[in-house]
Fold this sequence. Notes:
single chain, alpha/beta, Rossmann fold, 2 domains, six-stranded mixed sheet, 43% helix, globular
Amino acid sequence: MLNVEAVRLEFGGVVALKDVTFDVKKDELFAILGPNGAGKTSLFNCLSGLVSPTGSIQINGQELTGKKPHEIAGMGVARTFQNLGLFGSMTVAENVLVGGHLQIRGGAVAAALRWPSVFRSERQARQRADELMELMALQEHRNTVVGTLPYGIRKRVEIAKAVASQPELVLLDEPVAGMNHEETATFIDYVLELKERLGLTVVLIEHDVAMVMKIADRILALDFGEVIGLGTPAEIQQNERVIAAYLGATDEANVQTKLLLEGATSE
């Protein structure tokens, strides 16, 4: 579904991404790992059109590079952000409906003329929003102002808002950052349920190595903008460059990382 080839991104004299190449298959859960400053968010910014790199990024054979964010969203790509991208003064239902605005046909003129197609698409958008709130266990909060809700629930709202645009590919930027172990486990269950029920392809950035090792089909590891590993969790677990990037190149650090990775895949 997604093909990234020789993507390079520079800011002045700083190279954020160095000829990054990988692909993501349809229905895959693909994770991107790396220490702070590795280039993970820069890569997401390229995929969602916030910056324009050199190289090629294609979804289903269509080139994304150079397109604007709303054009990429129209091609079936949705994204969440590390810092919540919600409207805090609006209700849960209103936020989810905003996410589905691309699916509402017609403009101001059509709405003013009360064309049946406009009302039909609005009705479908509301029905989809209800279904998503049900899947994410948000119905009891549907009329609650988002800014008053706990952090973990707001994270679920953001996922529902993103998926309301009916994407094929969802980019999740550190979806469990700031959550405790119990919240993380519950949240990931919701994400996996959405993925299964809606046939989504998911690419996520995450620092929680243990969680990634359990749920990812494949993993891309970055360090200083360069690909240092690409493969299954078992393959990444044995990758010496990944181990060194996470806890340094010392023997003691490598032992600690190996224990962490092995523990993540053995549970």
